[in-house]
Amino acid sequence: MYFVLLIILSALFAMTLGIPDVAFPQGDEIMHIRSIRESLEVGSYTLPVLSGLPNPYKPPLLFWMGMFFDKIFGISYFSERLVSFLFGLGTLALFYKFYQSISKSEKESKLATLAFAFSFLSLKFFGILMMEGALVFFTLLYVYLFFKSKEKENLTYVAWGSFLVGFGYLLKGPILHIYIVLFLISYLYLKMIRVRKGHFHISFKPLLKEKQTLLLFSLSLLIPILWISYLYLFTNSGKELLRFFFITENMGKFYAANQSGLRIWGGWLLYTIPFSIPLFHTVWKIIKRTSKDKNRIMTMVLLVFLLFVTIFHLMPNRKDPYYVTPFISFLFLIPALKKENWETIILSKCNKYSIPVLYFLLVALAVVLRLPSLFAVSLTGIVLSISAIAFQNKNKSFYGVFISQLLLVPIIMLFFVRPMADPNIADQLTDVKGKELCVIAENPWTAMDVQNKLIDSKVKFALPLTYRDTCPDAEMIVTFSEANLTEDWKKVNSWFQWKQHLNLDSKETLKALLKMDKRTFQSEVNVWKKEELR
Question: Is the pLDDT of residue 192 over 80?
Fold first, then answer.
């Protein structure tokens, strides 16, 4: 019954993949989809292109897989996002297997997998075309095979894990290798360093013992070496691509800090929603009182590893919260390592009383934003979660709170984000098929987004002052930024969409909220059609 439910839920989730504007978008997805479609259009299958040039930002695996599914199912958002969806299913299956191998409990493994599947991480990155969903899979796969090799005393597992890490390079470059190196350092740190009577003791015996594991990691370099050699030796722009990718795209991120480090710490809280409180409460209990159970080393290795990757991501100039997504699955493994059952975690005071509070916040949002569906559903959530807390039967109380908690992110997606979403561009521009469209905006990605949604139209990007030179033959213009058009352009349509960057202070924001003036947070998009002057 459990797996039937999981299949049904997965099918329902898969049905949403074809919706252009997802509930939780990520800007880079626009570029990834554009690169796939443009590569198919020009027939550049080996080396993906973007804006007519080889794509220098990311290696090709995600684009190759997107092109493969576009060829099979036709060019669509569904085909391209199917890549991340399949990596998501693989991650959930792997997570279930990993959890069960630690907890030895089928029930606990099912509950943990369900919780992980309904986390913000899963519901976002397993439904959009980003590298992060695949990185979650490859990172978890290596760690699982590493511990499996220790359990079975068989190096074949870690050999396969090392080799498969090489495919991870084709997703986002050397970053996965860095993650795995940090994991191995974490493991060796726990094995080599001991603190006894206030003194550090370092033993090099574990280093010698793990010599074969470390040497086998060299297998992860096979795929990267082959790909780098191909670029360097057999493509015209290979040297320039490699120089840009390694120096500008990767090393360039360490040039200077331009974002707050709090964004990384916030990522841990954000992508574990709605289970942030119970998971971090469990971690806090481990830190406060370390037990000497058989999983102690594995638990401490994972915690040190999570600390190391956090420190690593605090170093570059960009500190986007989603950088921590490849490691969220390990937080969901912590209860298994500590032999904590999910009933105890969910029914802890700090967790179960937080659920009605969250639903109360959603009710308040529904009132302020005038969303009747959200109000009704959130009110039901309050009744269900409070009733569950009041149940004398512990089993009923657990499932009442657990289900209320699982549904939090889907409710936000369906009843809060969807009603507040921008109008669909394809619905606003119904008569542009086969026409040349000029998009005036501050960012070329806006034009890429329009082109992705209007497959049958030719879209060009122009800055407000350069549209005459950039789009001399355009039949229609869509202005996302203010532009002074000539008199032969007539406005035929307009709509409002949410601003991506707001320059409002707290006083202006509060004033706009109290007046329920959403136009403060929106900008007008105008559609212009060329007409002959008399």
Answer: yes
In one-letter notation, the amino acid at residue 532 is: E
Is 221:165 a contact under the CB 8 Å cutoff? no
Residues 228, 347: Cα–Cα separation, whole Å? 52
d(CA 309, CA 323): 9
86 contact partners, CB below 8 Å, separation of at least 6: none
Residue 78 pLDDT greater than 80, yes or no:
yes
φ and ψ at 20, to 5 degrees? Answer: -55, -50
- Written as one letter, the residue type at 423 is P
Output the six-digit token pair for 393.
């039967």
Cα–Cα dist 494/339, whole Å = 58
Q: What is the identity of the amino acid at 259? A: Q
Residue 282 C-alpha from the chain's centroid: 24
- Cα gap 374→359, rounded to integer Å: 10
If pLDDT is split at 50, 70 and 90, which confidence band does 512 have?
low
**Residue 49 neighbours by CB distance under 10 Å:** 19
**C-beta of residue 493 within 8 angstroms of C-beta of residue 423:** no
Rounded Cα distance, 248 and 250, in Å: 6
* The one-letter amino acid at 261: G
CA geometry: angle at 30 spanning 27 and 34, to 5°?
155
DSSP structure class, residue 424? P
Query: CA–CA distance from 330 to each of 117, 276, 405 (Å)?
Result: 13, 13, 20
Strands 436-440 and 476-479: parallel
Distance CA 78, CA 451 (A): 16
Distance set, CA 242 to CA 156, 173, 247 (Å): 33, 11, 8
Q: Biggest alpha carbon distance in the chain? A: 94
**Structure-token pair, residue 41:** 């259009």
* 140/147 Cα distance (integer angstroms): 11
Instruction: Give me the residues paired with residue 53 across strands.
Output: 50
* φ, ψ at 32 (rounded to 5°): -65, -45
* Cβ–Cβ under 8 Å, residues 218 and 162: yes
Closest CA to 238 of 113, 408, 55, 379: 55
Non-local CB neighbours of 299 within 8 Å, separated by 6+ positions: 286, 334, 337, 338
**Whether the model pTM is above 0.90:** yes
**Which residue's entry shows tokens 């000539």?**
486
Contact (CB, 8 A) for 64 and 257? no
| 449-483 per-position pLDDT tens digit | 999 999 988 999 999 988 889 998 898 999 998 88
Phi-psi region of 130 (alpha: psi -120 to 50; beta: other; left: phi over 0): beta
